[in-house]
Cellulose synthase-like protein E1 (Castanea mollissima), 736 residues
Amino acid sequence: MGKEGGGEEALLPLFETKEARFRGAYKVFASTVFVGICLIWVYRLTHIPRAGEQGRWAWIGMFMAELWFGLYWILTQSCRFKVVYNYPFKERLSSRCKDKLPSIDIFVCTADPKKEPPTMVINTILSVMSYNYPPENLSIYLSDDSGSELTFYALLEASSFSKHWIPFCKKFNIQPRSPSAYFAQQIDIQDITYAQELLAIKKLYKEMENRIDSTVEMGEITKEIKDQQKGFSEWNSKVTKQDHQSIVKIMIDGRDKNGVDIYGGRLPMLVYMAREKRPQWPHNFKAGAMNALIRVSSEISNAPFILNLDCDMYANDADTIQEALCFFLDEKRGHEISFVQFPQNYDNITKNDLYACTFSVITNVEFAGIDVYGATPYCGTACFHRRESLCGKVYSKDYRKEWNIEDKNNTYKTINELEVASKILASCSFEKETQWGEKMGLIYGYSAEDFVTGLAIQCRGWKSLYYNPNRMAFLGVAPITLNDVLMQQTRWSEGLFQIFLSKYCPFIYGHGKIKLGAQMGYCIYLLWAPCSLPTLCYVIVPPLCLLHGISIFPQVKSPWFLPFAYVIVARNACSIAEALSCGDTLKAWWNGQKMWVIRRTTTHFFAFINTVVRQLGLSETTFVITGKVVTKDVSKRYEQEIIEFGSSTITFTIIATLAMLNFFSLIGAIKKIVLDLEFKVLDQLILQLSLNLLLVMLNIPVYQALFIRNDKGRIPASILFKSIVLASLACLMPII
């Protein structure tokens, strides 16, 4: 970058990195936990029941589970021994770059107007169009993978509304700049002019929203609307979601000085793209859409930096671009940064985070720890990229680029010429016999295409950076039913485990390219799926052994009891401390533990099975979109923090069966102690009894949904019957 301003100011860093406090004390603490884990392993190995003794295989199963848990815990420490936080100086950026800020391309991806309402999509679009950034340097692209004329119509409406919304945002400096989010909050009106303009802009928005919603409900565009915009000529009776030609329409030409808002201010470029889809061609899901966007944008605006967002994740801070550029344009370290990942936050999280969707410890601690190695994972949204690195460029130490050089090279082309050229780039056949999906763009063949792409970029010598600002930069919509949460988790954990079993396994592909700590950090998430097996062992074996009076933990008076007790108490105390330091409530931490058990015993297990089956070539990769449309009664229960079950799926059958198994075991243990007066059970089985009681407490919402609730979100009676039968049969099984 050119040194505007000269002197010492040009040499001042645009960001600083600070190390979190108390990491030394944490290392000492972690060392004591590690000693405790090692002692548990020693106990298991030295006390294995003899061949033929009851509980021998249960003991071996517990040892294998504890061995896995211990090794996995060691992995997690790779991102906890040192934690760093990055702080940009955007004031320095403004003074240094003056009027020569680089161009930014913003990608927003949507795939289904039924599951991702067009009104939600355009709120995201309007929020990024309104950034505090020179509009002539801003281009917004919407990828519509459904090729829906309904989404196109919504974007057409948004392009007109933006001429009113953008100047309103900048005149009064409002936050956030998603109309829906802004109007939903409490607004303090003190200025008469502001009040009048607020009422007017809100009226315009509601009218637009009603037109879009009524059109979407009707399911087709009226002839009157089609006659007003020639772009609708792309849609005919032959166009379907999975079979249509490439469509590229420039809705607002940001190059045109006559393309202005109601006050004469310039507007950013706005482009609609639906890449070609044909049944005989693989479309590679979101990765394919992103790669088409990279190519199309290179033809139209070709900005050196790219921000990609999911369609439900609106911009919550109007100055985010400047903050991100501080990292890329820093004189000392900026040239080596490939992408800057922001956390995924949500605006509909309940007070106690009912479904543990925020992953607060991951976003506040673990990612900040992985950032030490310059290897923060790419999470698929809320991420700024350097275009060159995303397109396959290998980093070299002498790499530099002057960002004050004009990047756009198509200012002389007409809109029609750009659209025609872009359609070719978005066609199915364009990628044939090219490196796209392998060494260029996002990598194909993985449902977690973001993670594997980020890893591949880092293995080409680039570094990534994690930035968690005080004001959340982006806010999305978290799923509000348990089924949607678990479906999303299945997709994530399946895709991540698929990477671990592929050539992109960090320990193999990353060997010698990224640091060992970074390899371990990646594997924390890639191994979510196999963690289901030891978790299932811990949820099933101890209660069954308790029911049969078989001890698989040391007695209270035994010295071996101490390492078990210490590791359990220390790890949970640390977990609570981390959660509270990240802003969670104690109940949110408890909800997190509950969801941890549910995920590990259901979705992660399914992901493990599905991935193994896929590795054997018996199935193919699929992609399921999480729905964003819910009914009012579901929303009400979510706001009241009541878990939404409501369907008869195998997932809920497993959850209910495990809950009933632990309940039966607890009742059996209490009967032995109270009715049969077997008080020695307390000394022999105290750890099993405690674990069993803990699991029963975690499952209280499940029991309520089985026996007490009568709303539509309860667990169906058919699952209640199946869970009782299955749990009863399990209790009758002999322990070997």
